[in-house]
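Attaching the record inline, Q. Sequence:
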Amino acid sequence: MQHVIALHQVYGELIFRGLKWHEIRRSRVFDEGDMVFLYIARGDLYTLKRTMRRLGLTEEQTLTRRGTIAGGFEVGEVIKADFETLWELTKDTSGLTFVHGESEGRRWLKSYINDYGYAFVIERPFLFKEPVTRVELKARYGVHVEGIIHISTRTRRPWVKSLLEDLMCREVMYL
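Structure, as predicted:
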């Protein structure tokens, strides 16, 4: 199955730089072998700038642009776990500690998943040679997109099927 999900730019940058290996969700939205495309959402600009500085980079050196479908990854192992186990498994691989620090990352995860959640292993991350922009989405599919929360092959709208077919055919650079 294919999915398009929104992800804050800071986490997209970490994925495409090989610093984030787990995506965390409250529910089992992906299965092993699924393809996930990332719509790069805005997120907190201060957090992005601070994280880029920690990487020794400037905002101009980002690999992604907000408002685009920049690339994606294949889903590896799916792990269901309680909060404590999930935190121990992913605190250094989800980007939470890197972006927020250990105590704030832990607090964020607890408020997000509550008692249990899922970690999805990120495998074979890739960037599109030509990211899909909002302008292109409007021109090709007739939809005005300010953000995408989650669409998948389960979505019945015809434009979603066309978009996912297009994404599967695009030229990619594996990282």
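The helical segments are 9-16, 45-54, 83-90, 96-100, 102-113, 134-141, 158-169. The chain has a mean pLDDT of 93.

More tomorrow.
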